[in-house]
Specification:
This protein is α/β, with parallel strands linked by helices. The protein is built from eleven helices and 17 strands. It has a domain at about 5-70 and about 105-155 and about 250-335: FAD/NAD(P)-binding domain, CATH 3.50.50.60. The chain has helices at about 15-25, 50-60, 90-95, 105-120, 145, 210-215, 220-230, 280-295, 305-335, 340-350, 355-365, and strands spanning about 5-10, 30, 45-50, 70-75, 75-80, 85-90, 100-105, 120-125, 130-135, 150-170, 175-180, 185-190, 200-205, 235-255, 255-260, 260-265, 270. The strands form three sheets. The protein has an eight-stranded mixed sheet with strand order 6-5-11-12-13-10-14-17, with helices on both faces. It has a six-stranded mixed sheet with strand order 8-2-1-9-16-15, covered by helices on one side. It starts with a strand and ends with a helix. Keywords: FAD, Flavoprotein, Monooxygenase, Oxidoreductase. Pathway: Cofactor biosynthesis; ubiquinone biosynthesis.
Amino acid sequence: MDSVDVSIRGSGPVAFSLGLALARQGLRVALPQVPPLAAAGDLRAYALNAAARALLSSLRVWDALPADAVTPVYDMHVEGDGAGGALDFSSWQQGVEALAWIVDAAELERALHTAARFAPHLALDSGEVRATLTVLAEGKDSAAREALGVAFERHAYGQIAVAARLRADRPHGGVARQWFRSPDVLALLPLDRPQRESSYALVWSLPAERARALLDADDAAFEQALAEASGGAAGTLQLAGARAGWPLAIARAERLCGPGWVLVGDAAHVVHPLAGQGLNLGLGDVAALARVLAEREPWRSLGDEVLLRRYARERALPTRAMAQLTDGLLHLFAQPQPLVRELRNRGMTLLNHFAPLKRLLTSRALDA
């Protein structure tokens, strides 16, 4: 292929979702010809909100996912690091179908790759192509972004996220559980794989030294540490396979666009996973960029920087607000002082009884 309207550099769900969205507009799109990741080695699970689900449904990807690869979250229970501090969110109280949907990452990528193979106007190409617009969706370590000289302000948290799949001895009931403690954040996300109705995806953010020790520990020692951290709230938990870990940071590109190029997803911004909003922000980028391009003036080029700045302005507030929220929560719960801990717990208790604010927080998360 010699030339296209849009060349997308990236092989993840943000890149392929954008490719499908733009191809539906009749634009000629090129994506890298790479196979999806093997399900057996992928421990990731995404917590997708209503806006992300709507986008994937419009691309006819959501309904292609296997039934056991998608688990709705009906309730969420959040605990602090002391007695009395807790928050409960309910889809029934919020008047929504679900608070989120936990999706197996490998199955989502497989469905997106399959859809791309059959999409008109979309070509999977391993070579270099000329394009009116180049979209960088390569992730936080984007080489193309670096080549453009775009600064990527990154601050490491000194933490590692430990991921694993777990089996429980009792049903999860569609309840997600999270513990904010000094100095770690533990999340158990209900997932019907590998065992329907009684499995979890684990995301445990810990100081790097402690995380490495848990990654190197034998299964029995890891499960014992997990039992102590969760207090048995989800039942007896057992590892269902390997563990993996990756370092955590907050990061943001100094600018999102220039003449003929634009950044989306983790190439543009990275947040802490404690709120599960990383991919939601990336798919929000997809929806916004697709809409801006679709609504451009007939005489305006796809690579016009004035056009691309419309996208950048639209995404500035939600991405920065989510970064500040996750960063603020992490630092708040990292404070070990007894007085700070007591104030945190009292604040959580007050918020738990203030329904209007809880509804506001939930609506923000559903539409991030």
